[in-house]
Amino acid sequence: MAQRGSYAKGIAKREEILTTALDVIARNGYRRTSVKELADAVGLSQAGLLHYFSSKEELFQEVLRKRDEVDSASFGLEPESPIRSFVGVIRHNSEVPGLVQLYAQLSTEAADAEHPAHDFFVERYVQFRSTFGGMLREEQRAGRLDPELDVARVANLFLAAADGLQTQWMLDTSIDMADHIAYLWQLVARND
């Protein structure tokens, strides 16, 4: 019985670490956040913090997974306007620059098949294309999108636009990422 309690406490501590890391990285940025700082923020040593993760890379990967989980809960697809949810996430990203930096850095590093986060990003892109593609198919059925559009390609283009805009925004914060994505939607959607 004690083992179950210990397991539950471990899961709770891991969640606390991830939630705290979201705040610290969003505020300080990826490059200016150390494992020591994260450990201090949750009352652990560096070794104690890494006890909950196999490596620093896994910690940061799990931070991004937690970010996706939080964003999904906060900006879940609105049945009447799913694109508004997507634009909401993009707008929110401008409020958490450190997490955008972490995502950009880790996704680039994960292009190497040997990187610990490689599978995470491959699966994340597959999931996004599937979810966004499903939303596009619903929009086609509702008559708000051209039925001839290749939804798989359009979903991939939206993902590429969002990632590319994040990179541009990190270099020039005057770029309104959400506005650009909303404009792209206007170009794709039927305006009958």
From TrEMBL:
Pfam families: TetR_N (PF00440). It comes from the Bacteria. Keywords: DNA-binding, Transcription, Transcription regulation. InterPro entries: Homeodomain-like_sf, HTH_TetR, Tet_transcr_reg_TetR-rel_C_sf. GO terms for molecular function: DNA binding. Residues 34-53 bind DNA. Gene3D superfamilies: Homeodomain-like (1.10.10.60), Tetracycline Repressor, domain 2 (1.10.357.10). Residues 11-71 form the HTH tetR-type domain. This is AcrR family transcriptional regulator.
